[in-house]
TrEMBL record:
It holds the Pfam family Helicase_C. Residues 474-484 have a biased composition (Acidic residues). Belongs to the helicase family. RecQ subfamily. This is ATP-dependent DNA helicase. GO terms for cellular component: chromosome; cytoplasm; nucleoplasm. It is found in: Nucleus, Nucleoplasm. Residues 801-817 have a biased composition (Pro residues). It comes from Muraenolepis orangiensis. Its EC number is 5.6.2.4.
């Protein structure tokens, strides 16, 4: 029999093991007399720990992996190496499936590795196969990848992983290897218990990485946080005067908007940075990633969706602009720095507001988990405790490395001034004291419950614990389409009536964990905390339904709810006004939509990820027909310099006693290049033709060329045939806007917004380009009409025939023009409220709104041929929007005036825009009104 080394070379093309630890694990697994637990960082080569033994054993290795996409990566990779690997999954065409089963049932199956999800392994259809393999002793090893998913304490808990315990019982003679990159102590214990690991050999890499310098900066007290970040980036990348600079960096943000803004600001300050998030088209995303990988872009500003599988050695810093959701994830994300072993920095910008928002999101996530699987208190605490650990990391006066090591059950390391506390404890204290109001709150909260007042009983109570039932989420759960909208209206109305009947003295102070801003303010007469919380939950639900795309945590959208509520609260003088304001926002977001809308989004979302993609397992046929391919020797990977301190060792301890783990771990995704299927997933999530697309990539740098993939973005805009009114600007880069604009003024009323179309797209709307287009438009119109009717909870016109369409205009309606809402007969009280809203000082325009305005203003000029290319038009629109949105709060009217003024100014200087350099000198308006501007050579 060939030696271990020979097999390593023959099958995988590696000359040696990546580390002693890897070699030890492989040997232990091959020996097979004990179960093995492996905790090694991402990219350290865990897969080989079962793949090599699989190739050296007689039978088949069953690999459990949580995601089809991850499985596909692995299977693809193995096939490239000419290794017989396959997966059985629900997406497999019947023919392929039959062939795989036939092979498994044959006397000597060709397959060596069979990848399967925990759901599939527990499914009745797989049982006969499993039994047959067992009874013929053809199962040589059970490998459980991403084993932390088994733990309710782990952030990626997957209930189906719990079924593996039962599976284990059915395979008494088969050794098991459990692998993870993320395992705090209690997770390790769970893994051992749940998988019923026996006499476990534990192999782990210590978490401490001496080359990483950790620090925490309180963001709020900073005068100019972006400038602060910029200084940090320059230092980390050695970009000082005269210095050549080295390496690159990652800034993590929670929201897409933050990504865009931070990237813009850093670029503006001189460090070329690009945003990376799920709102970008797949092509743009891989371009950004590849530019960053190649060093063309120094800083990637990303949501957490970036980084899995990215294996770049010279990341000199990882900064968190927003708080990570747990210490485990923070460690994992920050651990992407310094993989070459050179000194690197990990910084968190901490903000109490961030903390509140994150707590809010976690609570929401927990509530939704509870809704799905019933109360599981222990599990639900995990999110909070892990988050509390993250907060403590930021707020404690102690060594950051020590905090991390303890969290993962390691001994306290010798930090040697590799953190801000060990370097300068006084400065850390001073910073904490500066955030004094914060500490006071924490102290109060801690005296009641956990840090931040996470009253566990309350959380365990789920949505009820939140104060009252949140019907806004019920429809989603049922997905049945038979939800009665009047219930919502009634609930809302009753609540208000009840709350408003309370006397002043009845004002109930907010709970400690109340997320409302200025929660105890009595500014609005008769508006109670409870009513505000209810409104917050409505906004939150609407935002979630509206946005829906970024799956990782979905934090992006939900966190806005708190701000939105506060915005309405701040600007409301009466509770009626407040109520109208909230409803308006909910409606704008497409809230109170019919359950059928909710259903359609759900369906599409599933479709986006899993349906309609080219079958990733097509090559199974070839494989089983032994055509194999001629992959030749595998691409070797240089293993050098990876985690210089990644030493570890085997200890003959039960997992429960193990102290250990990884640097930089995380849910795995092998290979940096996104797989075909992942690209499919990304693509489905991308196709936003909303105006926000104009902002979703680069373009922040003057002189930078624009990708032409935008044509793709627009290809699936519903065509004009559905209604001639849509047609009037076909071919224009702003056609997406036109669809929305048309719709607003069409019979469905002014509520049909381009954002809704975007939502459909982001939510993975069943390919509009395969759906008959007229049907597509019709569906939207119908849906919107229903939504509008539901919104008309005070309307006498619900169900009434729509009046003839208003004159079509390509301009959006004035933002708060009550007259434009002609279709619904409002209850006078609310009508009055809306009028009051209209008289309120203008709301500050969001970047999206600014963009919308800018494109509307620019579109005619594009049509007049004032831009050499469509890309220039878009790039200019982005630039202008950022200029106008930059740090200033003005209403839409003012923004529009300023936009027009700037455009006039610009075209006062150039006849036709030929290059990005043309607008290099264009500056944000300094309060000059449109009428002040002169010299325009364009009519607007
Ligand atoms: N002995 C080795 N020599 C060189 N390269 C290796 C060796 N073992 C593994 N690798 C390579 O290291 C890379 C990372 O390996 P792998 O994907 O198994 O990491 P992992 O620990 O499973 O990470 P994750 O946590 O993402 O699952 C792969 O490209 C793999 O081919
Ligand atoms: Zn320290």
């Amino acid at each position: 029999m060939a030696s271990l080394q020979e097999c390593l070379k023959k099958h995988f093309g590696f000359d040696s093991f990546r580390s002693k630890l890897q070699e030890d694990v492989v040997k232990a697994v091959i020996k097979g007399d004990r179960d093995v637990f492996v905790c090694m960082p991402t990219g350290a080569g865990k897969s080989l720990c079962y793949q090599l033994p699989a190739m050296m054993s007689k039978g088949i290795t069953l690999v459990i992996s949580p995601l089809i996409a991850l499985i596909q990566d692995q299977v693809d990779h193995l096939r490239e190496l000419n290794i017989p690997a396959c997966s059985i999954n629900s997406k497999l065409p019947a023919g392929e499936r039959r062939m795989i089963f036939a092979d498994l049932e044959s006397q000597s199956p060709k397959l060596k590795l069979l990848y399967i999800t925990p759901e599939m392994v527990a499914s009745p259809s797989f049982q006969p196969c499993l039994t047959s393999l067992c009874s013929r002793q053809l199962l040589s090893l059970l490998a459980v990848d991403e084993a932390h998913c088994v733990s309710q304490w782990g952030h990626d808990f997957r209930p189906d992983y719990l079924k593996l315990g039962r599976l284990r019982k059915r395979l008494p003679g088969v050794a098991c290897v459990a692998l993870t990159a993320t395992a705090p102590q209690k997770v390790q214990k769970d893994i051992g218990d749940s998988l019923q690991l026996r006499s476990v050999l534990s192999y782990t890499t210590p978490v401490f990485r001496s080359n990483l310098y950790y620090d925490v900066i309180f963001r709020e007290p900073l005068e100019d946080p972006y400038a602060h970040l910029h200084v940090f980036v320059k230092q980390a990348l050695s970009l000082g005067a005269g210095a050549k600079g080295q390496g690159c960096g990652i800034v993590y943000c929670r929201t897409r908007d933050n990504c865009e803004t931070v990237a813009y600001q850093l670029t503006r300050l001189g460090v070329l940075s690009k945003a990376y998030h799920a709102g970008l088209k797949a092509g743009d995303r891989s371009e950004v990633q590849s530019d960053w990988m190649q060093g063309k872009v120094l800083v990637i500003v990303a949501t957490i969706s970036f980084g899995m599988g990215v294996d770049k050695a010279n990341v000199r810093f990882v900064a968190h602009w927003n708080l990570a959701k747990s210490l485990a994830s923070y460690y994992q994300e920050s651990g992407r720095a310094g993989r070459d072993g050179l000194p690197s920095s990990c910084r968190t910008y901490y903000s109490p507001k961030d903390k509140e928002q994150m707590a809010f999101l976690i609570r929401k996530e927990v509530a939704s988990k509870q809704k799905k699987r019933g109360a599981q208190k222990e599990a639900d605490k995990a999110g909070f405790t892990d988050f509390e650990a993250m907060v403590s990391f930021c707020e404690q006066e102690s060594c950051r490395h020590a905090t991390i090591s303890k969290f993962f059950g390691n001994a306290v390391p010798n930090c040697s001034k590799a953190c801000d506390y060990c370097r300068d404890p006084k400065a850390v204290r001073a910073q904490l004291e500066k955030g004094n109001h914060l500490s006071t709150r924490i102290a109060a909260a801690q005296s009641q419950g956990g840090a931040f007042g996470f009253d566990r009983d309350l959380y365990a109570g789920g949505r009820k614990g939140y104060g009252f039932e949140r019907h806004d989420e019920e429809g989603d759960e049922e997905g049945s389409g038979d939800e009665d909208p009047s219930l919502r209206k009634k609930e809302f109305g009753n609540l208000f009536k009840k709350q408003m009947n309370l006397s002043k003295e009845d004002f109930v102070l907010p709970d400690e964990d109340c997320l409302l801003r200025e929660a105890s303010s009595r500014k609005v007469p008769r508006l109670t905390v409870k009513a505000r919380e209810h409104c917050l939950s409505l906004l939150q639900g609407a935002l979630n339904d509206h946005q829906g795309a970024e799956k990782t945590f979905n934090g992006d959208v939900d966190s806005l709810a708190v701000d939105m509520e506060y915005e309405v609260f701040k600007s409301s003088k009466s509770s009626n006004l407040y109520k109208a304001g909230v409803l308006k926002k909910v409606r704008e977001l497409g809230g109170f939509t019919s359950a059928s809308h909710v259903y359609s989004l759900k369906r599409k979302r599933v479709g986006a990820g899993l349906r309609g993609s080219s079958d990733p397992f097509q090559t199974a046929r070839q494989l089983l027909q032994a055509s194999g391919g001629d992959a030749g020797p595998p691409a070797g990977t240089d293993g050098g310099g990876f985690y210089p301190d990644a030493s570890g060792g085997s200890r003959e301890l039960p997992v429960t006693e193990t102290a250990a783990r990884d640097p930089a771990g995380g849910p795995s995704q092998t290979g940096p290049a996104p797989s075909k299927k992942q690209q499919k997933i990304q693509e489905a999530a991308k196709t936003s033709r909303n105006i926000s697309l104009y902002f979703q990539k680069k373009a922040l740098v003057a002189g930078e060329t624009e990708d032409t993939g935008s044509a793709e973005t627009e290809r699936d805009i519903p065509p004009a045939e559905a209604d001639p009114g849509i047609n009037d600007n076909s071919g224009s880069p702003a056609e997406s806007v036109a669809v929305g604009s048309f719709s607003r003024t069409d019979e469905v009323g002014e509520d049909f917004r381009p954002e809704e179309l975007e939502q459909e797209q982001l939510g993975g709307k069943a390919d509009p380009d395969t759906e008959p287009r007229a049907e597509y438009v019709k569906t939207h119109l119908k849906m919107n009409r229903k939504h509008f009717q539901l919104n008309g909870w005070v309307s006498g016109a619900v169900g009434a025939d729509p009046p003839p369409p208003a004159k079509r205009s390509r301009e959006p309606p004035p933002p708060q023009d009550p007259g434009s809402r002609r279709r619904v007969t409002f209850n006078p009280q609310v009508q009055e409220s809306l009028l009051e809203v209209a008289n309120e000082p203008p709301k500050p325009a969001t970047l999206k709104e600014v963009a919308d305005i800018v494109v509307h203003c620019l579109d005619p000029l594009y049509k007049q041929g004032k831009f050499a290319t469509k890309e220039l038009f878009k790039s200019f629109a982005r630039h202008l929007s950022h200029l106008l949105a930059e740090g200033r709060s003005r209403g839409r009217g003012q923004v529009k005036a300023e936009a027009k003024a700037l455009i006039r100014k610009f075209f006062g200087g150039v006849k036709r825009c030929e290059s990005e350099a043309d607008w290099r000198l264009l500056r944000a308006p300094s309060g000059a009104s449109a009428s002040d501007e002169k010299g325009s050579n364009v009519a607007m």
